């Protein structure tokens, strides 16, 4: 129940709906019992067993509530019988219809209220999960499959609705139905009711045995679903490679193996779950059968129970079966839902190691310099950067070059605080970036990555990620600076053109220029360019390079370069090797040194 308590807190904003549901369920349970009891006077009239009473019963002279109710009913029937037996029967049938109508009216009302509560919890749960998914650091997802996260937000949340939240429907209605019914059964015949309760614990024990392994089986199903969703997500993302390498069979085999395991786990889980309803019904009918024998003895042999009361009693006893079945089914649902709740809460309760400090500063603007002060960093075991120091004065362009794995892109990840340094510190205007709010830090930065990350939307909406309230004129101006307006204005709908999934309708150079335009529109004082031209052909590179030079005017820029031809105008070039600076200077100074930088330039020239 620990997970249930944690999930149920999401129901607090909808407590008025919960109260409405509880009130409606109380009346449902009450009229559900009265509906069955109302059959008794009708049966009395039909069997002619009503004892004529012409004087209105007095409560003070009655032995108990049962005797008073019977006498009052007989008085009413006697009164109406004087007008004719048919009239009495019409009144009795009317009474039965009214009771069943009220029962079903309150049933609908209870479901009406619970619908808002269930769907509200579902909405809030998904929103919290999505917010947490965005809030968690990038390092969290380097160890997780994307498909598994998608499965938690979709199918696991639905499982919560089908299991935990279904209990909210039962938590008042079914127990109250059972309580009201049992009270009425005791009033009819205490002896017969005690006999029933000898068999109920045995039934409950047998039913509970079925549900014990449901959580474990459900956990396997949900994990496997996350795995095959991951394969699907990877397949869609890498379709060109899969087709290009004729790897359809490899991925098809992996996917089929996963769906086969899902098939096996699901069958095992559902067969166990499906056993619940027939088992509880069979055990219930067994109890009813024993009741028929024992109650029949009381009616036919002992003559201690009226036939019409016994039939009403049997109706009440059978009425207990439905809520009892629902409660046993819900208990299986809780066990099944526990696995889903555990997976959801794992994300919700994960602490973000990069969260803002309580007294974090909201920095507005950039005044003097960025400093990397003796920083060291490792992703896992081996340090990528070791005791690294560098100063980037305001308005200067600093380029980082070096072989793959030398730590260039890591510096971009650290200054944007996608990761935190293991030791040392990074400062902006002599303030440690850990002391700044992440939002205000990233507001100072514009990022252009090697892979132009665009979204399946219009050019305008992709641009507005940089500046939410930018005007159309400002968007067009940013596109011109990024050398992108020339192709955008030729598109059928201009900036309102949808660019497809990941910008698939555009060429590599066009996508990169759009991502530069987005950074220009944001107009940040600091630019971080992570190998922004390395994936482009020569012509596209030339266009993008002009766009980058336009963008970097009057800005502080950290440029991570693979193609050295793009950074010759930088104020300083820093050469990295295994996380350490081995050379530093301007382009011509480094060539004169005849060191590593010159070798890199010569290698690219030969290439």
Automatic annotation (TrEMBL):
- The organism's superkingdom is given as Bacteria
Entry-linked Pfam families: ABC_membrane (PF00664), ABC_tran (PF00005)
Protein's UniProt name: ABC transporter ATP-binding protein
Membrane topology term = Multi-pass membrane protein
A GO CC annotation given for this chain: plasma membrane
Keywords attached to this entry: ATP-binding, Membrane, Nucleotide-binding, Transmembrane, Transmembrane helix, Transport
Entry GO MF terms = ABC-type oligopeptide transporter activity; ATP binding; ATP hydrolysis activity
Gene3D superfamilies per the UniProt record, alphabetical: ABC transporter type 1, transmembrane domain, P-loop containing nucleotide triphosphate hydrolases
Q: TM segments?
A: 16-40, 88-117, 170-188, 194-214, 282-301
Q: Which organism is it from?
A: Aureibaculum marinum
Q: Matching SMART domains, A to Z?
A: AAA
